Amino acid sequence: MVFSTRGQVVIPRRIRKDLGIEEGTRAVVESSGDGVIILRPVTAAAVRRGYGIFKRKAGDKPMSEWWAEYKKEEIAREEAKCERHIRPR
Q1: Residue 24 region, left (φ>0) first, then alpha (ψ -120 to 50), else beta?
Q2: Which domain holds residue 74?
Q3: Total structural domains in the chain?
Q4: Could you report the per-residue pLDDT of 16-36, keeping only the tens digit for each?
């Protein structure tokens, strides 16, 4: 497998078929911390299995507000990580 200049990779057809990955399927990308990249497709079946996992409590922020904050923090972490690699110490 080879990464493109944009960080893209091609997942073999057999694996996409086995996991129910179709064009437009979203995925969650994580790092295990020890150099392993974890790619989890968010398919309709996965959504059905996870239904009800995110129980909300009274007074919790709306999901859209929580997600916007989460994304903002994620972007800040990524930018900080890039800064460390771009600027030599």
Answers
A1: left
A2: 55-89
A3: 2
A4: 998 888 888 888 888 887 888
How far is 61 from 48, CA to CA, in rounded Å?
A: 23
- Residues 48, 17 share a domain: yes
How far is the first Cα of the chain from the last one, in angstroms, to the nearest whole number?
32
Tokens of 29: 């990308």
Helix (H) or strand (E) holding 79: helix 63-86
Longest dimension (CA), the chain: 47
**Do 36 and 73 fall into the same domain?**
no
2 lies in the same domain as 41: yes
**Gap between the Cα atoms of 5 and 25, Å rounded:** 22
Residues shown for the chain: 89
Backbone angles phi, psi at 39, to 5 degrees: -120, 115
Same-domain pairing of 8 and 21: yes
User: Rounded to two decimals, what is the model's pTM?
Assistant: 0.46
